[in-house]
Design goal:
CATH topology of the largest domain: Rossmann fold
Strand content: 15-25%
Number of domains: 2
Radius of gyration: 20 Å
Protein name: LacI family transcriptional regulator
CATH class of the largest domain: Alpha Beta
GO molecular function: carbohydrate binding
Number of helices: 10
Structural class: alpha/beta
Organism: Phyllobacterium phragmitis
Family: Belongs to the bacterial solute-binding protein 2 family.
Keywords: Signal
Length: 312
Amino acid sequence: MKITLKTVFAIGAVMALPAGAMAGEIAVIVKTTNSNFWQNVNKGASAAIEGTGHTLTFDGPAAESAVADEVNLVDNAVNRGVAAIVLAPSDPDALVPAVKRANEAGIPVAIIDSALGKDGAGTFQTFLSTDNCAAGKLAADAMIKLTGGEGKVAVMSYVAGVGSEIGRVGCFVEQIKANSKIGIVGPYYSQSQMATALNQTTDVLAANPDLKGIFGANEPTAVGMGRALQQSGKAGQVAAIGFDGNEDLQAFVKDGVLNGTLVQGSFQMGELGVKAVVDLIAGKKVEPQIDTGVVYVTKENLDSAEAKNVLY
């Protein structure tokens, strides 16, 4: 039996689904599968699917910059009539038409991690993410404390214009400018490629020998940044804050290469995203926005229960 919607309301509305609708495939589509962060999302999704009667598929492009590939994955999911989609859009606007197609086909959609563009309003039912602006401000406050609020701080970002980047990096820069005398260098965009971030950071360190701080805004960028700090001999000399929490970043924090890293609830994104669409398929109401949290992990709290709950 094909699941259809007779009525679609704005975000967060109850969806009119047939009683006793058959279980089906829930497609989790992320920005790339080549990242521990997104694999941790997959772990959360896999945990949530157990016992639901639904099946789970997990897919994404080879790189976050391969936006067209992600659009095709969503289109393919719509064409094969999945029961629901959990989507992390790599580009806020490029994914809107595909999500609209899902909506028109009566397929519930939960957006995770990065917001969909404003033209997609009303085409999905819930948005689960870290409050990236709050996370950016938290990183900025930590940087101000580490640097004394003066000097130059470089911003190593990932993909310009992505919803998470706009909030995370934008609010970091705004908070720095509003509350310190720090001068911002950059941002530089790694396209979420570790090697690119390593090369960019190496160049920034060489061009700015008086640099006091540096912020790496996602996993591959922060890993490349950390390796550049090590290779240049600047580790421990430049205040450094990363984002995300894979084993490399945990080691950087433990060894003092990074003063800290902000870690999102990636497992929770997958887990709560799948639970949300399972509820939608069953005709239940879900919250229009769900905060999946962030923890600032330092050497002091690295082994705490709070940190271990989000590290991967």
